[in-house]
Amino acid sequence: MGLSDPVVLFFLLGFAASLMKSELKLPASLYETLSILLLLAIGLKGGVELAKQASWALLGQSLAVLAMGVILPILAFPLLRVFGFARADAASLVAHYGSVSVGTFAVAVAFLAAQGVSFEEYLPLFVVVLEVPAILVGIVLAKGISRDTDWKALGHELFLGKSIVLLIGGLLIGWIAGPTGVKPLEPLFFTLFKPLLGLFLLEMGLIAASQLGSLKRYGVPLVVFATVMPLVSSVVGALLGLALNMSVGGVAMLATLAASASYIAVPAAMRMAVPEANPSLSLTASLGITFPFNIVIGIPLYLQLAQWLAANL
């Protein structure tokens, strides 16, 4: 996004404060409130657009995006095994990278708006679609189809976790209420979106810096994976967006979704399903390396990729 963008600067402030052992910390209740507002804002925007554009074509696009969420972790898993990661750790990592980061999506929304680049407003639907398949693939890669897996509890975590409920709830509210019904909510959820995102990223910076301690143990292979995987995934996402005849902004957003890594829904699900996997490994990669990489370098790069593909293919 560029280091001069305010939301990036908020993230860097938190990151630097944590590295310098500052006492800066947002109240847990404020962080929870910001998360809820951002998730609902993304869902509402998508729901309003869904009310305008719901179609069989959109269903076909959603299925194609779901397939991407299955393929990306399967492709990444052998690479991590070659790097020497244990089977459970490799499976947990690829589940994080096959899923999505709502925070990264929110930053991309703000970035494209600042650049004056429009995109298909139903893309929050794809955020929901991409949350689940990678988790299921990760579980199968870790242990196969096991009788020991509590699928009922896991299903509850997958489909009734906070992020999914808020995103789907926002989508449904926006869809049912439509543009006119949602209009009174715009000052809070739409006008204040970027200030809320800035505060959210301040806390994300604090958390991301706290995860870097695991680098002392896992070192170069983890850094290589956490920076190369987003680049590879972004190309897959961009090509899929192009194949689905999306706009330049839509291609950039789908590339961003593919390049992002979950640090909310997937850690909770994998802790339940694959307890032997090291959670600090996945959080260091997704939140400590990939998230900062994407918001500082990746998102502008994915927009350039989308523009290049539109001009040359």
Question: In words, what does this structure look like?
Answer:
- Keywords: Membrane, Transmembrane, Transmembrane helix.
- The chain crosses the membrane at residues 54-80, 92-113, 125-146, 158-177, 189-210, 222-244, 250-269, 281-303.
- Pfam families: Sbt_1 (PF05982).
- This is Sodium-dependent bicarbonate transport family permease.
- This protein is mainly α and 313 residues long.
- It has one domain (6-312): Na+/H+ antiporter like fold, CATH 1.20.1530.20.
- The chain has helices at residues 6-19, 28-53, 56-82, 87-98, 102-115, 124-131, 133-143, 151-160, 162-182, 186-191, 193-210, 215-243, 248-259, 265-273, 279-312.
- α3 (56-82) packs across α6 (124-131), α5 runs parallel beside α15 (279-312) and α8 runs antiparallel to α14.
- The longest helix has 34 residues, at 279-312.
What's the quick description here?
The chain has helices at residues 6-19, 28-53, 56-82, 87-98, 102-115, 124-131, 133-143, 151-160, 162-182, 186-191, 193-210, 215-243, 248-259, 265-273, 279-312. With 313 residues, it is an all-alpha fold.
